[in-house]
Amino acid sequence: MPALQNDTLIRALLRQPTPYTPVWLMRQAGRYLPEYKETRRRAGSFLALCKTPSLAAEATLQPVERFPLDAAILFSDILTIPDAMGLGLYFAEGEGPRFERPLRDEASVSRLRAPDPARDLRYVTDAIFETQRALAGRVPLIGFAGSPYTLACYMVEGGPSDDWHVMKTMLYSRPDLLHRLLGTNARAVADLLNAQMDAGVQAAMIFDTWGGNLSAEAYREFSLAYIAEVLSRLRRERNGIRIPVIVFTKGGGQQLEAIAASGCDCVGLDWSTSLGEARRRVGTRVALQGNLDPAVLLSSPDVVRREALRALESFGSGPGHVFNLGHGIDQLTPPENVAALIAAVHESSPKFHPQT
Ligand code: CP3
Description:
- This protein has 356 residues and is of the alpha/beta class.
- It has one domain (8-352): TIM Barrel.
- The chain has 16 helices and 11 strands.
- The chain has helices at 8-13, 34-43, 46-51, 53-66, 80-87, 106-111, 117-120, 122-135, 148-157, 165-173, 175-199, 216-233, 256-260, 275-282, 301-315, 335-348; strands at 72-73, 89-92, 96-99, 141-146, 203-208, 237-238, 241-242, 245-249, 266-268, 287-292, 321-325.
- Strands 1-4-5-8-9-10-11 form a 7-stranded parallel sheet. A two-stranded antiparallel sheet has the order 2-3. A two-stranded antiparallel sheet has the order 6-7.
- α4 packs parallel to α8 (122-135).
- The longest helix is centred in the middle third of the chain and has 25 residues, at 175-199.
- The radius of gyration is 19 Å and the shape is globular.
- The protein starts with 7 loop residues before the first helix and ends in an 8-residue tail after the last helix.
- The model has no long low-confidence stretch (mean pLDDT 97).
- Bound molecules: coproporphyrinogen III (CP3).
- Coproporphyrinogen III binds next to β3.
């Protein structure tokens, strides 16, 4: 693999000095880009796109070709793991992800096994090889997986939910069963992230989209404990080079100190927690990623520039900030607002890095 021409993201994740603040966007490859819709049409479906390495690599590269982003993120989905476990993932038009065989009883949880990435998720590592060939060291490639708890939410509930009642009923009535499921998921997530690291990703992110739906105590017991277990199982190094890991719990602002102590390199923030306040709370222990409200990108380039500057000022001077949104980009986002955001971060951020 060629040496990185732009390692700003990696340096920021490790809290090393950088000349400016690096920027990438959650869901930067997706439906707001006409070229993505064209690739998806050729694939036939979102899942076929994920499972065809050449097309997944093409989708990964699209935002990097269009905008001067400081990272690419592998085009895939967190639900590939439960799909490989045999739960039967499908996407009902307009309804989001669903499983044909959700986990509803003890027998189905006991039968569950962590997939072997080399056999069951080969398309993920093949997409990484293809993407790295095409990227040719321009920017780092970020790998990812869901948190054990967020995966369990979909696996138990069978699809998205407003209140997660089926999941929470299992949590309070059969915590033993949920712990067994989370243990299996933690192994599966660690195995897949290690396979991604061996295949060549230069950073990784754990998406805990639903951890914020738990009480403070339940969050630590059922979500963060298993994220920490995943982190402890990761090799986090390839050819002697450190592979930093970001942990993002949406709605996790109250738990910042605990997340920062989980063993990650960087904590992702949604827009409900201020960057400056988060920085005061975690000190120099971890880098911070985030946290622009994705709805800002629905406005105009002027508003986008103003809000980007506000976020940079909130973090303040010094290393350890990775600019990003507080959650995935909205599909109605005009691409010119994304261009304005990236330009604003690149033009306005050098003054926050005076030492370089
Ligand atoms: O960030 C990127 O560009 C990389 C690709 C990526 C996707 N999903 C592609 C995708 C990543 C990192 C994910 C993670 C993911 N998937 C999460 C965690 C992050 C988050 O958003 O909270 C979750 C919860 C999922 C599960 C999932 N997959 C959902 C809820 C959906 C949306 C369903 C919908 O119709 O809006 C998906 C589908 C999905 N994953 C799309 C993309 C681009 C849209 C699929 C399409 O083309 O129709």
